[in-house]
Amino acid sequence: MSGTADVSINTCSRPSALRITDLRVTEVRGAPFHSTLVRLDTNQGISGYGEVRDGASSTYALLLKSRLVGENPCDVDRLFRRLKQFGHHARQAGGVCAIEMALMDLAGRAYGVPAYMLAGGRFRDRVLCYCDTDSVPDGREMGRRLRQRMDAGFGFLKMDVGIGLLRGVKDALIAPPGMLASQTVMHPFTGIQITEKGIDHLCQYVAEVREVIGYEVPLAVDHFGHLGLESCIRLGRALDPYSLAWYEDMIPWQFTDQYVRLSEAVATPICTGEDIYLKEGFAELLARRAVAVIHPDLASSGGILETKKIGDLAQEHGVAMALHMAMSPVAALAAVHCASATENFVALENHSVDELEQWSSLVQGLPVPLIQEGHIQVPEGPGLGFTELNEDLVRQHLDPDGPGFFAPTEAWSRERAHDRLWS
Ligand SMILES: [Mg+2]
Fold first, then answer.
1. What is the whole-number distance in angstroms between the Cα of residue 271 and the centre of ligand 1?
2. SS in 3 state form for the chain?
3. What is the pLDDT of residues 190-200, one digit of tens each?
4. Which of 37, 83, 396, 411 has the highest Cβ tally under 10 A?
5. What is the CA(253)–ligand 1 centre distance, in A?
6. What predicted TM-score, i.e. pTM, was given to this entire model?
Protein backbone atom coordinates (compact mmCIF):
# COMPACT_ATOMS: atom_id res chain seq x y z
CA MET A 1 0.00 0.00 0.00
CA SER A 2 1.35 3.46 -0.85
CA GLY A 3 2.45 5.86 1.86
CA THR A 4 -0.31 8.27 0.80
CA ALA A 5 -3.01 5.69 1.43
CA ASP A 6 -1.53 4.78 4.81
CA VAL A 7 -1.88 8.37 5.99
CA SER A 8 -5.67 8.28 5.56
CA ILE A 9 -6.16 5.11 7.62
CA ASN A 10 -7.27 5.55 11.22
CA THR A 11 -4.83 3.41 13.15
CA CYS A 12 -6.09 4.52 16.56
CA SER A 13 -8.38 1.55 16.71
CA ARG A 14 -8.61 -1.88 15.13
CA PRO A 15 -12.27 -2.72 15.78
CA SER A 16 -11.98 -6.44 15.08
CA ALA A 17 -9.28 -6.77 17.76
CA LEU A 18 -10.90 -4.46 20.30
CA ARG A 19 -11.56 -6.10 23.67
CA ILE A 20 -13.12 -4.89 26.92
CA THR A 21 -10.59 -4.97 29.75
CA ASP A 22 -12.41 -3.27 32.62
CA LEU A 23 -15.70 -1.83 33.89
CA ARG A 24 -15.63 0.93 36.47
CA VAL A 25 -18.16 3.37 37.90
CA THR A 26 -18.16 6.77 39.50
CA GLU A 27 -20.98 8.45 41.37
CA VAL A 28 -21.66 12.17 41.06
CA ARG A 29 -23.88 14.09 43.42
CA GLY A 30 -25.48 17.49 42.90
CA ALA A 31 -24.45 18.18 39.33
CA PRO A 32 -27.42 18.58 39.56
CA PHE A 33 -28.41 14.91 39.86
CA HIS A 34 -27.05 11.88 41.60
CA SER A 35 -25.58 10.19 38.54
CA THR A 36 -23.82 6.85 38.30
CA LEU A 37 -21.49 6.91 35.31
CA VAL A 38 -20.08 3.71 33.86
CA ARG A 39 -16.80 3.43 31.97
CA LEU A 40 -15.75 0.47 29.82
CA ASP A 41 -12.01 0.36 29.12
CA THR A 42 -10.36 -1.55 26.28
CA ASN A 43 -7.06 -3.02 25.13
CA GLN A 44 -6.65 -0.17 22.61
CA GLY A 45 -6.75 2.76 25.00
CA ILE A 46 -10.27 3.92 24.15
CA SER A 47 -13.08 4.00 26.70
CA GLY A 48 -16.86 4.22 26.37
CA TYR A 49 -19.35 5.77 28.77
CA GLY A 50 -22.86 4.98 29.92
CA GLU A 51 -25.09 5.95 32.82
CA VAL A 52 -27.20 3.93 35.24
CA ARG A 53 -30.84 5.09 35.44
CA ASP A 54 -31.48 7.85 37.98
CA GLY A 55 -31.86 6.48 41.48
CA ALA A 56 -30.68 2.96 40.59
CA SER A 57 -27.84 1.10 42.32
CA SER A 58 -24.44 0.89 40.59
CA THR A 59 -24.52 -2.82 41.51
CA TYR A 60 -26.78 -3.39 38.51
CA ALA A 61 -23.87 -2.39 36.26
CA LEU A 62 -21.02 -3.89 38.30
CA LEU A 63 -22.49 -7.38 38.29
CA LEU A 64 -22.16 -7.37 34.50
CA LYS A 65 -18.38 -6.85 34.51
CA SER A 66 -17.42 -10.51 34.50
CA ARG A 67 -19.78 -11.07 31.55
CA LEU A 68 -18.08 -8.34 29.48
CA VAL A 69 -14.33 -8.49 30.05
CA GLY A 70 -12.64 -10.09 27.03
CA GLU A 71 -15.57 -9.34 24.69
CA ASN A 72 -15.51 -7.13 21.61
CA PRO A 73 -17.69 -4.09 22.44
CA CYS A 74 -18.56 -3.63 18.76
CA ASP A 75 -20.80 -6.72 19.02
CA VAL A 76 -23.45 -4.53 20.64
CA ASP A 77 -26.52 -6.62 19.85
CA ARG A 78 -24.94 -9.95 20.72
CA LEU A 79 -23.74 -8.65 24.08
CA PHE A 80 -27.06 -6.93 24.78
CA ARG A 81 -28.92 -10.21 24.21
CA ARG A 82 -26.54 -11.93 26.62
CA LEU A 83 -27.03 -9.28 29.29
CA LYS A 84 -30.68 -8.37 29.04
CA GLN A 85 -31.75 -11.16 31.41
CA PHE A 86 -30.10 -9.05 34.15
CA GLY A 87 -32.50 -6.15 33.66
CA HIS A 88 -36.10 -5.63 34.60
CA HIS A 89 -38.57 -2.78 34.61
CA ALA A 90 -37.72 0.71 35.92
CA ARG A 91 -34.43 1.09 37.84
CA GLN A 92 -33.58 -2.60 37.71
CA ALA A 93 -32.79 -2.11 34.01
CA GLY A 94 -30.22 0.52 34.93
CA GLY A 95 -27.12 -1.64 34.56
CA VAL A 96 -27.99 -3.34 31.28
CA CYS A 97 -28.97 -0.03 29.68
CA ALA A 98 -25.87 1.78 30.93
CA ILE A 99 -23.73 -0.94 29.36
CA GLU A 100 -25.59 -0.67 26.05
CA MET A 101 -24.89 3.08 25.97
CA ALA A 102 -21.20 2.44 26.72
CA LEU A 103 -20.99 -0.27 24.03
CA MET A 104 -22.52 2.10 21.48
CA ASP A 105 -20.10 4.80 22.58
CA LEU A 106 -17.16 2.41 22.22
CA ALA A 107 -18.27 0.99 18.88
CA GLY A 108 -18.75 4.52 17.55
CA ARG A 109 -15.34 5.59 18.80
CA ALA A 110 -13.74 2.46 17.33
CA TYR A 111 -15.28 2.95 13.89
CA GLY A 112 -15.10 6.75 14.01
CA VAL A 113 -18.85 7.28 13.51
CA PRO A 114 -21.59 8.84 15.67
CA ALA A 115 -23.89 6.45 17.51
CA TYR A 116 -26.92 7.45 15.45
CA MET A 117 -25.20 5.98 12.39
CA LEU A 118 -24.90 2.63 14.15
CA ALA A 119 -28.67 2.87 14.73
CA GLY A 120 -29.43 3.36 11.04
CA GLY A 121 -28.76 7.05 10.42
CA ARG A 122 -30.52 10.35 11.01
CA PHE A 123 -34.08 11.51 10.59
CA ARG A 124 -33.13 14.89 12.12
CA ASP A 125 -29.97 16.81 12.96
CA ARG A 126 -31.35 18.53 16.05
CA VAL A 127 -33.57 17.12 18.74
CA LEU A 128 -36.47 19.01 20.29
CA CYS A 129 -36.27 19.16 24.08
CA TYR A 130 -39.17 19.61 26.45
CA CYS A 131 -38.60 20.77 29.98
CA ASP A 132 -40.22 19.86 33.23
CA THR A 133 -40.99 22.72 35.62
CA ASP A 134 -41.50 22.35 39.37
CA SER A 135 -45.04 22.95 40.63
CA VAL A 136 -46.22 25.99 42.52
CA PRO A 137 -49.72 26.20 43.99
CA ASP A 138 -50.79 29.34 42.14
CA GLY A 139 -51.81 28.82 38.51
CA ARG A 140 -50.83 32.29 37.35
CA GLU A 141 -47.39 32.00 38.95
CA MET A 142 -47.02 28.56 37.32
CA GLY A 143 -47.93 30.16 34.01
CA ARG A 144 -45.27 32.85 34.51
CA ARG A 145 -42.64 30.17 35.21
CA LEU A 146 -43.61 28.32 32.06
CA ARG A 147 -43.56 31.58 30.12
CA GLN A 148 -39.96 32.05 31.28
CA ARG A 149 -39.15 28.65 29.76
CA MET A 150 -40.68 29.82 26.49
CA ASP A 151 -38.65 33.03 26.64
CA ALA A 152 -35.53 30.86 27.11
CA GLY A 153 -36.33 29.13 23.82
CA PHE A 154 -38.33 26.07 24.87
CA GLY A 155 -41.19 25.26 22.56
CA PHE A 156 -42.56 22.23 24.42
CA LEU A 157 -43.43 22.26 28.13
CA LYS A 158 -44.54 19.95 30.93
CA MET A 159 -45.98 20.55 34.37
CA ASP A 160 -47.55 18.57 37.18
CA VAL A 161 -51.30 18.72 37.78
CA GLY A 162 -52.43 16.34 40.45
CA ILE A 163 -53.55 15.68 43.93
CA GLY A 164 -50.38 17.34 45.23
CA LEU A 165 -52.06 20.66 44.38
CA LEU A 166 -55.13 19.69 46.42
CA ARG A 167 -53.45 19.17 49.77
CA GLY A 168 -55.14 21.58 52.14
CA VAL A 169 -58.06 22.23 49.78
CA LYS A 170 -61.15 21.30 51.77
CA ASP A 171 -63.37 18.57 50.32
CA ALA A 172 -61.17 18.10 47.24
CA LEU A 173 -60.09 14.51 47.94
CA ILE A 174 -61.59 11.41 49.49
CA ALA A 175 -59.11 8.91 50.93
CA PRO A 176 -58.95 6.05 53.41
CA PRO A 177 -56.97 6.94 56.56
CA GLY A 178 -53.24 7.32 55.91
CA MET A 179 -53.50 6.63 52.21
CA LEU A 180 -52.68 10.17 51.04
CA ALA A 181 -49.23 9.76 52.64
CA SER A 182 -48.57 6.48 50.86
CA GLN A 183 -46.00 6.35 48.04
CA THR A 184 -45.98 2.63 47.42
CA VAL A 185 -49.61 1.59 46.99
CA MET A 186 -50.58 1.29 43.32
CA HIS A 187 -53.29 3.61 42.07
CA PRO A 188 -56.20 1.14 41.86
CA PHE A 189 -55.62 0.03 45.45
CA THR A 190 -55.38 3.38 47.27
CA GLY A 191 -59.10 4.09 47.34
CA ILE A 192 -58.30 7.77 46.68
CA GLN A 193 -60.99 9.64 44.75
CA ILE A 194 -61.14 13.20 43.53
CA THR A 195 -64.32 15.22 44.17
CA GLU A 196 -66.05 17.64 41.79
CA LYS A 197 -64.60 20.44 43.89
CA GLY A 198 -61.11 18.99 43.43
CA ILE A 199 -61.65 18.67 39.67
CA ASP A 200 -62.89 22.28 39.49
CA HIS A 201 -59.80 23.44 41.41
CA LEU A 202 -57.40 21.70 38.99
CA CYS A 203 -59.32 22.92 35.94
CA GLN A 204 -59.11 26.48 37.25
CA TYR A 205 -55.36 26.00 37.76
CA VAL A 206 -54.81 24.82 34.20
CA ALA A 207 -57.06 27.62 32.86
CA GLU A 208 -54.90 30.18 34.64
CA VAL A 209 -51.73 28.61 33.22
CA ARG A 210 -53.18 28.65 29.71
CA GLU A 211 -54.22 32.29 30.15
CA VAL A 212 -50.55 33.16 30.70
CA ILE A 213 -48.87 30.91 28.11
CA GLY A 214 -51.64 30.72 25.52
CA TYR A 215 -52.65 27.68 23.51
CA GLU A 216 -49.99 27.48 20.83
CA VAL A 217 -47.28 25.74 22.84
CA PRO A 218 -47.61 22.02 23.62
CA LEU A 219 -48.06 21.48 27.36
CA ALA A 220 -47.88 17.93 28.73
CA VAL A 221 -49.09 17.00 32.22
CA ASP A 222 -47.69 14.47 34.69
CA HIS A 223 -47.93 13.36 38.33
CA PHE A 224 -51.68 13.19 38.78
CA GLY A 225 -51.22 11.15 41.94
CA HIS A 226 -52.31 7.66 42.87
CA LEU A 227 -55.95 8.02 41.89
CA GLY A 228 -58.21 5.19 40.84
CA LEU A 229 -59.16 4.84 37.18
CA GLU A 230 -62.64 6.33 37.48
CA SER A 231 -61.28 9.49 39.10
CA CYS A 232 -58.68 9.70 36.32
CA ILE A 233 -61.43 9.47 33.70
CA ARG A 234 -63.53 12.21 35.37
CA LEU A 235 -60.48 14.47 35.75
CA GLY A 236 -59.23 13.71 32.25
CA ARG A 237 -62.58 14.59 30.67
CA ALA A 238 -62.74 17.84 32.63
CA LEU A 239 -59.22 18.81 31.48
CA ASP A 240 -59.80 17.93 27.81
CA PRO A 241 -60.84 21.51 26.83
CA TYR A 242 -57.34 22.74 27.69
CA SER A 243 -55.85 20.70 24.84
CA LEU A 244 -52.90 19.28 26.75
CA ALA A 245 -50.18 17.40 24.86
CA TRP A 246 -50.65 14.24 26.89
CA TYR A 247 -51.74 12.83 30.24
CA GLU A 248 -48.69 10.95 31.58
CA ASP A 249 -48.75 7.86 33.78
CA MET A 250 -52.25 8.44 35.09
CA ILE A 251 -52.22 4.77 36.13
CA PRO A 252 -49.45 2.15 36.33
CA TRP A 253 -48.32 0.96 32.88
CA GLN A 254 -48.97 -2.69 33.81
CA PHE A 255 -52.77 -2.28 33.67
CA THR A 256 -53.38 -2.46 29.93
CA ASP A 257 -57.15 -2.91 30.27
CA GLN A 258 -57.37 0.25 32.36
CA TYR A 259 -55.32 2.14 29.78
CA VAL A 260 -57.74 1.02 27.08
CA ARG A 261 -60.70 2.30 29.14
CA LEU A 262 -58.87 5.57 29.87
CA SER A 263 -57.88 6.14 26.23
CA GLU A 264 -61.41 5.48 25.05
CA ALA A 265 -62.92 7.79 27.69
CA VAL A 266 -60.91 10.98 27.16
CA ALA A 267 -59.98 13.09 24.14
CA THR A 268 -56.41 13.95 25.15
CA PRO A 269 -53.47 11.71 24.14
CA ILE A 270 -52.67 9.12 26.80
CA CYS A 271 -48.99 8.45 27.53
CA THR A 272 -46.90 6.00 29.54
CA GLY A 273 -43.61 4.14 29.31
CA GLU A 274 -40.80 5.59 31.45
CA ASP A 275 -40.54 2.41 33.53
CA ILE A 276 -41.03 -0.20 30.82
CA TYR A 277 -38.15 -2.57 29.94
CA LEU A 278 -37.67 -3.83 26.37
CA LYS A 279 -39.91 -3.82 23.34
CA GLU A 280 -42.00 -6.68 24.72
CA GLY A 281 -43.16 -4.42 27.54
CA PHE A 282 -44.66 -1.96 25.06
CA ALA A 283 -46.13 -4.52 22.68
CA GLU A 284 -49.46 -5.15 24.40
CA LEU A 285 -50.12 -1.45 25.09
CA LEU A 286 -49.58 -0.75 21.40
CA ALA A 287 -51.49 -3.75 20.08
CA ARG A 288 -54.48 -2.92 22.29
CA ARG A 289 -54.43 0.78 21.23
CA ALA A 290 -54.10 1.69 24.89
CA VAL A 291 -51.83 4.73 24.39
CA ALA A 292 -51.36 7.56 21.89
CA VAL A 293 -47.81 8.46 22.97
CA ILE A 294 -45.12 6.19 24.39
CA HIS A 295 -42.51 7.69 26.68
CA PRO A 296 -39.59 5.30 27.22
CA ASP A 297 -36.51 6.23 29.21
CA LEU A 298 -33.71 4.53 27.35
CA ALA A 299 -31.89 3.98 30.64
CA SER A 300 -34.78 1.60 31.42
CA SER A 301 -36.12 0.59 28.03
CA GLY A 302 -32.94 -1.10 26.78
CA GLY A 303 -30.57 1.54 25.46
CA ILE A 304 -30.24 3.12 22.03
CA LEU A 305 -30.90 0.20 19.67
CA GLU A 306 -33.75 -1.37 21.65
CA THR A 307 -35.46 2.00 22.09
CA LYS A 308 -35.26 2.66 18.36
CA LYS A 309 -36.97 -0.72 17.87
CA ILE A 310 -39.63 0.35 20.38
CA GLY A 311 -40.14 3.58 18.46
CA ASP A 312 -40.43 1.68 15.18
CA LEU A 313 -43.02 -0.67 16.69
CA ALA A 314 -45.01 2.31 17.96
CA GLN A 315 -44.84 3.91 14.52
CA GLU A 316 -46.47 0.83 12.98
CA HIS A 317 -49.41 1.49 15.31
CA GLY A 318 -49.57 5.21 14.56
CA VAL A 319 -48.17 6.08 17.98
CA ALA A 320 -45.60 8.83 18.62
CA MET A 321 -42.53 8.45 20.86
CA ALA A 322 -41.37 11.03 23.38
CA LEU A 323 -38.38 10.22 25.59
CA HIS A 324 -38.23 10.49 29.37
CA MET A 325 -34.86 11.65 30.76
CA ALA A 326 -33.70 12.93 34.15
CA MET A 327 -29.99 12.25 34.04
CA SER A 328 -26.58 13.66 33.06
CA PRO A 329 -25.50 14.59 29.51
CA VAL A 330 -24.13 11.05 29.06
CA ALA A 331 -27.60 9.49 29.11
CA ALA A 332 -29.10 12.57 27.44
CA LEU A 333 -26.72 12.19 24.49
CA ALA A 334 -27.58 8.50 24.19
CA ALA A 335 -31.21 9.63 23.98
CA VAL A 336 -30.30 12.29 21.40
CA HIS A 337 -28.76 9.68 19.08
CA CYS A 338 -31.79 7.42 19.49
CA ALA A 339 -34.13 10.36 18.84
CA SER A 340 -32.20 11.30 15.73
CA ALA A 341 -32.49 7.75 14.38
CA THR A 342 -36.21 7.22 15.17
CA GLU A 343 -38.73 8.69 12.75
CA ASN A 344 -41.76 9.06 15.05
CA PHE A 345 -39.82 10.83 17.82
CA VAL A 346 -41.51 13.93 19.27
CA ALA A 347 -39.51 15.46 22.14
CA LEU A 348 -36.83 14.61 24.72
CA GLU A 349 -37.29 15.54 28.37
CA ASN A 350 -34.81 17.62 30.36
CA HIS A 351 -34.89 18.20 34.12
CA SER A 352 -31.78 20.39 34.37
CA VAL A 353 -32.95 23.59 32.73
CA ASP A 354 -32.32 25.63 35.88
CA GLU A 355 -28.70 24.40 36.06
CA LEU A 356 -28.08 24.04 32.36
CA GLU A 357 -24.51 25.40 32.22
CA GLN A 358 -23.21 23.12 34.95
CA TRP A 359 -25.16 20.17 33.61
CA SER A 360 -23.80 20.70 30.11
CA SER A 361 -20.24 21.07 31.41
CA LEU A 362 -20.07 17.49 32.71
CA VAL A 363 -18.87 16.48 29.24
CA GLN A 364 -16.32 18.11 26.98
CA GLY A 365 -16.20 18.83 23.28
CA LEU A 366 -19.81 19.96 22.88
CA PRO A 367 -21.54 23.36 23.16
CA VAL A 368 -22.33 24.82 26.60
CA PRO A 369 -25.22 25.02 27.14
CA LEU A 370 -25.95 21.79 25.35
CA ILE A 371 -29.56 22.88 24.79
CA GLN A 372 -29.85 25.94 22.56
CA GLU A 373 -33.16 27.38 21.33
CA GLY A 374 -34.89 24.42 22.91
CA HIS A 375 -32.93 21.85 20.89
CA ILE A 376 -29.80 19.70 21.19
CA GLN A 377 -27.73 19.57 18.04
CA VAL A 378 -27.03 15.94 17.19
CA PRO A 379 -23.25 15.51 17.67
CA GLU A 380 -21.17 14.42 14.71
CA GLY A 381 -18.25 13.18 16.80
CA PRO A 382 -17.71 9.43 17.25
CA GLY A 383 -19.83 7.43 19.69
CA LEU A 384 -22.06 9.51 21.94
CA GLY A 385 -20.29 12.58 20.58
CA PHE A 386 -18.45 14.09 23.54
CA THR A 387 -14.67 13.88 23.71
CA GLU A 388 -14.21 13.14 27.42
CA LEU A 389 -15.89 13.62 30.77
CA ASN A 390 -15.01 16.87 32.51
CA GLU A 391 -12.84 15.18 35.13
CA ASP A 392 -12.39 18.33 37.23
CA LEU A 393 -16.15 18.90 37.49
CA VAL A 394 -16.83 15.21 38.16
CA ARG A 395 -14.22 15.18 40.92
CA GLN A 396 -15.73 18.33 42.45
CA HIS A 397 -19.07 16.54 42.72
CA LEU A 398 -17.97 13.02 43.67
CA ASP A 399 -20.47 11.37 45.97
CA PRO A 400 -18.61 10.93 49.30
CA ASP A 401 -20.45 7.64 49.79
CA GLY A 402 -19.53 6.43 46.30
CA PRO A 403 -16.52 4.51 44.98
CA GLY A 404 -14.41 7.57 44.07
CA PHE A 405 -13.30 8.46 40.55
CA PHE A 406 -13.57 5.21 38.59
CA ALA A 407 -11.84 3.25 41.33
CA PRO A 408 -10.76 -0.35 40.61
CA THR A 409 -13.54 -2.95 40.66
CA GLU A 410 -11.51 -6.13 41.15
CA ALA A 411 -14.14 -7.64 43.41
CA TRP A 412 -16.47 -7.86 40.39
CA SER A 413 -13.95 -9.41 37.97
CA ARG A 414 -14.57 -13.07 38.71
CA GLU A 415 -18.02 -14.46 39.22
CA ARG A 416 -19.13 -17.99 38.50
CA ALA A 417 -22.71 -18.25 37.29
CA HIS A 418 -24.56 -20.45 34.83
CA ASP A 419 -26.70 -17.81 33.14
CA ARG A 420 -28.56 -19.96 30.60
CA LEU A 421 -32.33 -19.43 30.78
CA TRP A 422 -33.30 -22.88 29.47
CA SER A 423 -32.31 -26.54 29.89
MG1 LIG B 1 -43.18 11.08 34.33
1. 9
2. CCHHHHHCCCCCCCHHHCCEEEEEEEEECCCCCCEEEEEEEECCCCEEEEEECCCCCCHHHHCCHHHCCCCCCCCHHHHHHHHHHHCCCHHHHHHHHHHHHHHHHHHHHHHCCEHHHHCCCCCCCEEEEEEECCCCCCHHHHHHHHHHHHHCCCCCEEEECCHHHHCCCCCCEECCCCHHHCCCCCHHHCCCEECHHHHHHHHHHHHHHHHHHCCCCCEEEECCCCCCHHHHHHHHHHHHHHCCCCEECCCCCCCHHHHHHHHHHCCCCEEECCCCCHHHHHHHHHHCCCCCEECCCHHHHCHHHHHHHHHHHHHHCCCEEEECCCCCHHHHHHHHHHHHCCCCEEEEEECCHHHHHHHHCCECCCCCCCEECCEEECCCCCECCCCCECHHHHHHCECCCCCCCCCCCHHHCCCCCCCCCCC
3. 999 999 999 99
4. 37
5. 11
6. 0.96
